[in-house]
Amino acid sequence: MYALPGFATCSVFSKLISADSRFVFFRRIKIKQKTLAICAQLGFCMLVGSVHAQTYPSKPIKVIVPFAPGGGVDITVRPVMEHMSRAVRQAVVIDNRAGGGGTIGANLVAKSAPDGYTLLIGSSTILSVNPVIMDVPYDPKKDFAAITMIGTQPKVAISNPSSPYKTLREFVAAARARPNQIFYSSSGNGGPGHLGTELFKFRTGIEMVHVPYKGTPPSILAVVTGEAQFSLGSIAPVIGMVKSGKLRALAVSSTTRSKALPDVPTFSEEGFKDMNLNAWTGLFAPAKTPPSIIAFLQKQVHGSLQDPGVVERLAADDVEPVGNAPREFAAFVQNDQQETRELLEKLKIKVD
After folding, report:
1. Residue 270 lies in a domain
2. Which of 53, 94, 207, 297 could form a disulfide with 292 if both were Cys (CB 3.0 to 4.6 A apart)?
3. Overall domain count for the chain
4. Is 305 within 8 Å of 299 (Cβ atoms)?
């Protein structure tokens, strides 16, 4: 509470009353005026906060996806944002800002006004991996406010259909027999495909040459054309090509077989356990965004993830919807950052 000056000198006032009652009278008037002024200010602040909460959003919301269009993250978030746009009756515009392994888009959000109109689609790459393997222009722990996890998705190992290995076991045997003679593609240095494959190499004891591309589509195309012999990435962008025979799916990283690719075995079934390669995607706001806006956005995303149409579209790409509370999501991200740092230090992955 606000302590009005003069209250601690009540005994002095009592003496002044006998000396000069008019002084006391005017002193009391001044105190009352000051009290009224403070109450008016507090009331105004509460009114502004209330009006802001009631009017948000009053204009389009920009959602920065720090990766190229057509990737797993991009495909995952679009049905969710489309549904949210209808729910809030404002345009929710997806803005792909690829570059720097996702750091360009993330930094744009970190430096944006904390008003709820510029948001970030984040992942382990942005918040956990990049800050360890490269210098990033943002603080992953201080510059963002966690809103909610949108979903998780397993990875799939792919190869060219003309390759001699038809299973993951056969591929690993070939890689062991020909160290550093097999090329693997990824969406870029520090990306989930890069990190996941390096972990796979570490666990299996094989050696391959990394060929980074600018985004998921060219990384996949490299396997289709034979420029690369292996890649590990999201299921969503490759489902169509696997089913049409342009790519061969060797295994998925989920604990059970993928609903989208039920004929493809898991890593565990192929004899490679402890391969936690599942990716997560979440929504973030700039730090210091009002809690009322964070809560509002979490509620909208959670509602979108309950919509049958959205669930069906996500399931087709093997995305498991989440929609957890901000505090729970923030704790998850913090734990992911710690575990990822330990893993990267063990793998000794760095990007110049």
Report:
1. no
2. 53
3. 3
4. no
CA 150 to chain centre: 8
For residue 272, how many other CB atoms are within 10 A of its CB?
A: 18
Q: Side by side, which strands form the sheet with 248-252?
A: 209-212, 183-186, 230-234, 155-159, 248-252
Please, what's the b/e burial string for 40-57 (b: 16 or more CB within 10 A of its CB; e: otherwise)? eeeeeeeeeeeeeeeebb
pLDDT, tens digit (0-9, with 9 covering 90-100), for 187-233: 888 778 888 898 899 889 999 999 999 888 999 999 999 999 999 99
**How far are the Cα atoms of 55, 159, 194, 202 from residue 198, in angstroms, in the given order?**
48, 17, 6, 6
Same domain, 93 and 110: yes
Say if residue 21 is in the same domain as residue 167. no
In a domain, 274, yes or no: no
177-194 confidence digits (pLDDT tens): 999 999 999 988 877 888
Cβ atoms of 260 and 239 within 8 Å: the answer is yes
Q: Do 122 and 142 lie in a common domain?
A: yes
Q: Model's pTM, two decimal places?
A: 0.76
Separation between Cα atoms, residue 2 and residue 125, nearest integer Å: 46
How many other CB atoms are found less than 10 A from the CB of residue 305? 22
With CA atoms as reference, report the closest residue to 6 among 28, 36, 38. Answer: 28
User: Does 17 share its domain with 35?
Assistant: yes
